[in-house]
Amino acid sequence: MDLVLATLAIALLAINLFSIAVAGLRLSHRDKASDKPAVIKPDGVSIVIPVRGIEAYSSLTLAHAFKLEWPDYELIFCVQDEGDPIIAEIRSAIAAHPAVPARLLIGDDRISANPKLNNCAKGWHAARHEWVVLADSNVLMPKDYIQNLVSGWRADTGLVCSTPIGSRPDGFWAEVECAFLNTLQARWQYVGEALGLGFAQGKSMLWHKPFLDAAGGIQALAAEIAEDAASTKLVNRHGKKVHLVSAPFEQPLGRRGLEEIWSRQTRWARLRRVTFPLFFTPEILLGALPPLALGLIAAVLLDLNSAAVAATVFAATYLPELALARAKGWRLSILSLPAMMMRDVMLPAIWIRSWLSGSFEWRGNAMTIGTQESQLTGSSPA
């Protein structure tokens, strides 16, 4: 038993190192993101951006959307509520950049229990171009945003996506969110893609509109409780694959608190659990705690130095992760290591919470996820 536990601990550390190596090879540094030659050459691109409320970096992300280096693109901002304060900022940004075709659409098309998808629907139908990007409002688009998405398209592609990379954190808990988003979640998404198991990410999704329209249109993305899960299954069902950009786009975070991080991470975990349970279940083995626990038990049974075992586990887990962040130009600070450790302490609790039903608020909408996928319900506030 002692050797079995030691072997399992070593295997988990080896898998962790493997994942970092794969992500390191697959990912490009930000300034080399769009060097890859493109398979497709869209004449025009429509960018549909669902927006709700004013966020810490709304002005910055709005400004970046109007400064993309692409000859022909349009921006379609979608807002559900005509009383939303973000409308004034969007109109001001549109007026300040008359050279960029941009529209603001207001209204709520109830095609699903997913408020984001409902908000996107009107923009999808209004898009002028055959290539459409569905982009979250908190994505900080670089000038080569479209080039990077386009360069990710391959012969077998049905969808190109980008994971969010946390940046500009304010405070420790925002650093923890960077640790979740960057060297954990983004890393494993790239590993999945490298193994032929690409999963869509709703932050930025490049679609060929005729393909999705022939598959049922944007309404088809209501087949799952999250549009990215529905996108993954739709693309795979049609014999195509989801691919990721070579360098993910930033999501500026600003201030974050523990309650906010917990709410967001448990929500995402529950969505992953109900949409891809076989892939979600092994997530309990992620982080430093599983190999640490196995290693310490084995150390006691084999009469080894427990402190040395713990130091080995921490070094094998966190040093490569820190090196990955540095190599790719992601957020790295004096708080990064303690943030990664706090993230790993939270991971088992998040995993356990994901198996329990419960309600949460998603962008002002009350949502409930039960123990079965069919138990999702949603309602907007009055």
UniProtKB/TrEMBL annotation:
GO terms classed as biological process: glucosylceramide biosynthetic process
Alphabetic keyword roster: Glycosyltransferase, Membrane, Transferase, Transmembrane, Transmembrane helix
Gene Ontology CC terms, in alphabetical order: membrane
Record keyword Transferase present: yes
TM regions (residue ranges): 6-27, 274-301, 307-325
Keyword NAD: no
Organism: Rhizobium soli
EC class of the enzyme, as a word: transferase
CDD domains membership: Glucosylceramide_synthase
EC number per UniProt: 2.4.1.80
Gene3D superfamilies cross-referenced by the UniProt entry: Spore Coat Polysaccharide Biosynthesis Protein SpsA, Chain A
Protein name from the UniProt record: Ceramide glucosyltransferase
Subcellular location as annotated: Membrane
Pathway in which the depicted protein is active: Sphingolipid metabolism; Lipid metabolism; sphingolipid metabolism
Pfam families membership: Glyco_transf_21
Membrane topology: Multi-pass membrane protein
GO MF terms held by the record: ceramide glucosyltransferase activity
